[in-house]
Amino acid sequence: MKKAMLSIKSLIVMIMASGCIFFSGTSANVGAFTNSGALKNSLPISIGEKLIFQLRWGVIEAGEAVLESLPFQYLNGIQSHHFVLKLKTSSTVDIFYKIRERIESYTDVDISRSLFYRKKATGKDKKDIVINFDWEKQKASYSNFGNPRDSIDIQSGSFDPLSALFGIRNKEFAVASEITFPITDGKRCFIGKAHIVKKELIELNGTTYDTYLIEPELEHFDGVFKKSKDPELKIWMTADERKLPVRIECKVIVGSITGELVSSEM
User: Where in the sequence is the signal peptide annotated (predicted)?
Assistant: First the structure.
């Protein structure tokens, strides 16, 4: 059961790591966050967007993930997007392995690079991870509960695992094409790849979606993916300007895990 719950967490991280945009930026470290006024947003992401996913492990209701785009804020004087992912296991799964996580990511207003990342887990697997991005030195610094690691070099346009999903939504999709992207978790930085496999109509909860099927490569990811023989991760995103993730499917050693969009607010 513990391996299954950890694989659910890995699944969510993988979804968030499905792509980003190349761009170099400025520097930002932990500092004061202040609310910003309204800003014209020409990107496909709506301020106030809220997506709720139901997670299942086989036939078992495993939990819920909530993905939000919150109002603009200032991070050390830089106007920033603020994205949040909240993850919790169901009451049934809580008996075996309770997970409560809140992941936050800040990017520049063009969503072209990460500025700050935080992951706080208060369930059984406690974490308080912070990644600071210093774009003047092109480095990322990782800490957990205030215990720092050595900073690492990052590539221009590097995204954290959460903001990467929002970055990919600015990309043009074409069947049989490949998207490459730099991504960092603060410990390493690598080039990820995602394949646009095909267009596909899928039905979820009585609603039909015209989607692109995307398959990220998994060679750089550890944990349950590395331990599984021929693991698979599939992501369906709407084939419109919003590119909303509506379904995710992961097949690993502990079984099949799915996430489906059950509610959306724009």
Answer: 1-32
